[in-house]
Structures are given as structure tokens and as C-alpha cells.
Write a structure and sequence with these properties.
24% strand; Fructose-1,6-Bisphosphatase, Chain A, domain 1; D-Maltodextrin-Binding Protein, domain 2; 5-stranded mixed beta sheet; alpha+beta; binds D-MYO-inositol-1-phosphate; globular; 8-stranded mixed beta sheet; 7 helices; binds calcium ion; 34% helix
Length: 261
Amino acid sequence: MSTSAGAPVELAVALELAASAGDLLLGYAESGVHRERKSRRELVSEADVAAQELIVAGLRRAFPDDAIVAEEEGGSSGSSGAGRRWFVDPLDGTTNFLKGQPRWGTSIGFYGPDGLAVGVVTCPPQREIYHAHTGGGAYLNGSTISCSDVTEPDDAVVASGFPYDLEERSNLGEWAIVTRKALAVRCLGAAAIDLCDVATGRIDAFWEQRLGLWDTAAGIVIASEAGAIVTDLGGSPLTSPSRDVVAANRALHSRLLPLLR
Ligand code: IPD
Ligand code: CA
Ligand code: CA
């Protein structure tokens, strides 16, 4: 995918690696895959690990000194001395992937010391690639995207999800509250793509808590560049990856946030 003139080199590298990972993952999806349980509710497959190896090796080649935080085992490396950090979820939506649901993909986010942030999220089964960088707008398959203008929870389709470990801050209480207020709630199983759906207006709002930094790093950039307000549960705007996230247009965000506190 081509990017606009002046786009950062980090974006070009992230797009290339996410596309290669997508091809690899589609191959595994067609041929079947070995899986294991990481914990009671969390699955991991050889596809997650192979996609991470491909992406991390590519980032290492292009930016040998950068820090990389990646989801699967052995996934943190490099020095963050220069304040350059990558966040990689090689396969977001593993459970969807393993069930044959066409909603999964790769998320690659980059945060630099000078305020530059880059986000790339793919959904290979839908042939969709989202990208953004600070100040450059947000794009789906190269076309500009923007978040919805639905302002009232009554009219809003709101997505969320649940941590694998439900013992602490499970999100079940918030889910019950928002379900009563919203037009509809959805649990779609891939947080990075949920943030991109806020960016296109396919959903009006998204919140989740206790995510991984790799889940949110790219989607925060994409949703923000599409005009969404993206904060933590306290309402502080996010300029770095966060485990808690609330994203919507400004008016809807201001009405949703008090329901989650
Ligand atoms: C998960 C998905 C899911 C969210 C979980 C995440 P994974 O990521 O994004 O939507 O609810 O909290 O851990 O395990 O499929 O990469
Ligand atoms: Ca994930
Ligand atoms: Ca994952």
C-alpha cells in the first residue's frame, strides 16, 4: 500500500510487515494450526508465534536500536534509551481466528520521542488495512476515514470486551450499565479492530479495560486521527498505549465516560 508524500519511514515498514504477516496468517487459517491454552480462557497458536517472529525480525532489521514490546513469549527486547518503542500484537482476535470468524489481524504501533506515533492494523480475511500517523489523518485501504457523529448513547452501537482473567475488574458491571443505555452493545473479539471500527464509524464507541499495550497502541493513533476522542477511564487523553481505553466522538465520549466510572 502506498502512503502520502512525507509519511514517516516507520509507517512504510509497519505496513510492509503487517501485510507479510497477514499473508502468513491467511496461510495458517487455510491449512489448520496447532493451538494451546495460555490460561483458562486464552488460546495461542503457532500462527501467533510465527507472525510475531516475522514482524520482530523485520523491525530488528530496519531499526536495530528500537525497543519492541510484543505479546507472545520472548516478545520484549531492545533498548528504549532513545525513546523509540514498537508495540506488536501479531494476531489480535486469536479466538476468532481459531473459530473461523473473519475478524482478526495484526496490530503494529510505534511511538517516538518527538511526538510521532504510527498505527497499522490489518484484517486479512476482509482484505482491510488501516493506517495513520500523527497529524496525517486515518485511512482504510488508502481512503480517508472518520468517526461517526452519533452523539447520544440511545442511538449508539458500543463495543467492548473482557479480560481473560475475570477475577479482577472484570468489565461485567460496566457492560450491564452500558447495555441498558445504548442502542446496542457488541463483543467482537479483536480490540485493535474495534478501535479501527470507531475510526470508520462502523461502531460509535468502544471501551475496554486491562488490555495489553499491544492491543491499543496502533488503534489509539488510528481512532484519534479519524477524529475520535481516545482516553483512559479517568478521561485523560492518550498519547501513549494504555491498558484502559474509551474511544468515541467528543459528544458521545462525554456521555459514555460517566457510565464507566
Ligand atoms: C484479545 C482481543 C479481545 C479482547 C482481549 C484481548 P488476543 O486479544 O483483542 O477482543 O477482549 O482482552 O486480549 O488475545 O486475541 O490477541
Ligand atoms: Ca490482542
Ligand atoms: Ca494476540
